[in-house]
């Protein structure tokens, strides 16, 4: 006599059923987000000063972790 193997899922959980979330209705008058472009409002000396400070802070930070 052969032993019958029970199915891996109960009868009410059918593996062949694909459950999908309900679709979201799309409206034709959908508004898209506005695009904001980056623009630099400064002069070269201001940018250069920020760049130098960043370089100096990087050197100080790396010197803290150096052996």
UniProtKB/TrEMBL annotation:
InterPro entries: DUF898. Keywords: Membrane, Transmembrane, Transmembrane helix. The chain crosses the membrane at residues 47-66. It holds the Pfam family DUF898. It comes from the Bacteria. The keyword Transmembrane applies. This is Inner membrane protein YjgN. The gene is yjgN.
């Amino acid at each position: 006599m052969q032993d019958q193997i029970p199915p891996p899922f109960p009868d009410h959980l059918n593996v062949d059923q694909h459950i999908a979330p309900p679709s979201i209705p799309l409206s034709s008058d959908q508004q898209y987000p506005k695009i904001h472009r980056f623009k630099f409002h400064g002069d070269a000396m201001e940018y250069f000063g920020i760049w130098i400070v960043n370089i100096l802070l990087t050197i100080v930070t790396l010197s803290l972790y150096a052996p």
